[in-house]
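Ticket 4471: requesting a sanity check on a complex prediction with KG4. Repro inputs:
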Amino acid sequence: MPLPNKTMLILAFESSCDETSAAVVEMDEGVRSIKSNIVASQIETHRLYGGVVPEIASRAHSEVISNITYEALEKAGVTLADIDAVGVTNTPGLIGALLVGVNFAKSLALANELPLVPVNHIKGHIAANYFEHPDLKPPFLALVASGGHTSVISVDSYTDYKTVGHTRDDAAGEAFDKVGRVLGLSYPCGAEMDGLAKLGNPDAIKLPMATIASDTLDLSFSGLKTAVINYINTATQKGEEINKADVAASFTKSAVNSIVSKLEAALERYGSKTLVLAGGVAANSHLRKAINDMCEKRKIRLCMPSLSLCGDNAAMIGAQCYFEYKNGERADVTLNAFATGSVSF
Ligand code: KG4
Ligand code: ZN
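Returned structure tokens:
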């Protein structure tokens, strides 16, 4: 058990989707540092199929998880004897993929008599911000936008989160990926769509604003996605040439505008003065700029992770593990994985 006031060294695991990651992080009230953060991406494998194949993901996690654990410890310059706690993502995600990380972390914690702490993946994404914004403290509002989730979350304390708005259909990243796929880009298409949108005219194609009723903070991207796909299919049938950059720019403008307007409404409703971005889509340059402009105008403090901490990684799980551990969260050998997490957590 760590002594009071001693920093904690946490070994953390993330395997909820298509990245296997192990990290060593050092945490206490003042220290938030990443000693190592190894990410083994399966993107090249899944690219062949145009999306993540769950069974292949689970097998690939099993193949690399031991090696990346050694790598994470070695790079951090520590051994298991130095570790104070083990953190692992146990929800939400692909069930088979989660189970690989959960069972590995469970065995490792049991064999080394270390406390085991389950971590919610969405909370982990938000916690990525604590490394680069050491003075960031709840309460604040957060946008988590990734391939599987898009939610506006009220972070009331380091461990109490309440979802105040969420997508009713596609996640933002999913919409970027599906539109990109129809444009012939390779999976996952978000980063490529981002670059392409810089070359296009955002007003070239008239698209519906991706939105739903103004009295809710919920989001929706499937109507916008379908409108873009219909535009592409109709133009193709007519033999018209499609300007991919214009499509990417017009889609991005509509998606970004809808996110920004819901965030403005959320900031207003909750009177929050701090906004935090998280998740793979938080890497989008257009979204980052639009939210930054909005926050400057409204005098809101904006925290965003650097690009390398937006996507799935275990360091973010280690950061949240620290706060869960401090809050008394512990798991034993019965720890299970859950594909869907609860809305308030
Ligand atoms: O958080 P993440 O790594 O995994 C999930 O938890 O889903 O997010 C991956 C998603 C993918 O849909 C990917 O296309 C998207 O984030 N993404 C982006 C960008 N970079 C990654 N979407 C838009 N613009 C980007 N620059
Ligand atoms: Zn994620």
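Notes from triage: The radius of gyration is 20 Å. Leaving this open until the requester confirms.
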